[in-house]
Amino acid sequence: VPNNPRYYTKITTPTISGFASTTEGKYGLEQRIEDVRTLAGKNMTISFWAKSSTIGSVAVGYSRYYGGAGFNRDGTIIKTVGVGPNWQKYVLTTYVPPIPNGKAEQTDSDGYDNSFFAVSIFSQLRSGVLGNDTGSNIDLGGNSVLEVAQVQVEEGARATEFEILAPGAELALAQRYYNKSLAPHLAPTTSGFPGKLSFFERSINHSASVDITFPVEMRATPACSLYGSTGVENTVRFAQFSSSNNGTLTGSATDVNVVSKLASHRCIHSFSIEDDGNVHYDVTAQCNYTADAEL
């Protein structure tokens, strides 16, 4: 693959069929692009590299979600392509029709736009699901490993060279949808506080104001989690505190449970802790966080 990509995607098709009536009838990769109006009424070219541990076929298509709640979504399969054990480049061009009459972009419960245009590569797709009108199921086979690299979606009828952004620019774009206080290569559940955040509160009964500001404004109000010293989700570490209002530190370091958080698209404003019947004074608290506003 050109540019010897460090990052690419590998998925294993499940052995349990994705075609059962109790499932969604699909399995594969999907890249959601903000705004359902993306490329509407224009030509679109998709290019990518792929290989598979088994010889078979995958379906490439797109779908449009108009936002709001429920399954307000349509789908189109562009083409079924063959894959095998050697890397191969695929280029597909199609016309994306205008938004149908009567379809309106909607918002989530907080009023943020949450519609999207999605490009998908399916290793399993049941007949009749998301535009599969071939009359048969598409199935690469259970335990088949599909690898995909350098996917690019662009306007027009010609594929250009894969665009490589500087790492800092790529990170800033990604942080609109997901960011965290730890380094990119560390999982949120990492213990030992790498990249920890510290803050001081004069007194904490049930809640604390923290004002953890995100590095960029996020797409919408994110789902947030806090992690204490051992990497347990929804805990915060009280590194030191006193049990009375006299300035004498009496409490040993401990993790306390977080029961709720208040956040916006710009920051985490506050959190509430589990009620232990005490007021904690002169608290130095520590935690890591994740904020997820993905589509």
In helices, the fraction of residues equals under 10%
Secondary structural class? mainly beta
What value does the average pLDDT take?
Answer: 87
Q: Tally the helices.
A: 1
- Count the strands? 17
Shape type: elongated
Q: Nearest-angstrom radius of gyration? A: 24 Å
Report the span from N to C terminus.
29 Å
- Beta strand %: over 45%
Uncertain parts:
none
The major beta sheet can be summarized as: 8 strands, antiparallel
Description:
3% of the residues lie in helices and 47% in strands. The strands form 3 sheets. Strands 10, 11, 12, 13, 14, 15, 16 and 17 form an 8-stranded antiparallel sheet that branches. The mean pLDDT is 87. The protein has one helix spanning 167-174; strands at 9-12, 26-34, 42-52, 56-65, 73-83, 88-96, 116-125, 138-139, 145-155, 178-180, 197-204, 207-213, 223-227, 235-242, 254-263, 267-273, 280-292. With 295 residues, the chain is mostly beta strands. It is built from 1 helix and 17 strands.
What keyword list fits this structure?
mainly beta; eight-stranded antiparallel beta sheet; five-stranded antiparallel beta sheet; 17 strands
Write the layout of secondary structure elements.
Blueprint: E1 9-12, E2 26-34, E3 42-52, E4 56-65, E5 73-83, E6 88-96, E7 116-125, E8 138-139, E9 145-155, H1 167-174, E10 178-180, E11 197-204, E12 207-213, E13 223-227, E14 235-242, E15 254-263, E16 267-273, E17 280-292
Antiparallel strand pairs: 1-9, 2-7, 3-6, 3-9, 4-5, 4-7, 7-8, 10-17, 11-17, 12-16, 13-17, 14-15, 14-17, 15-16
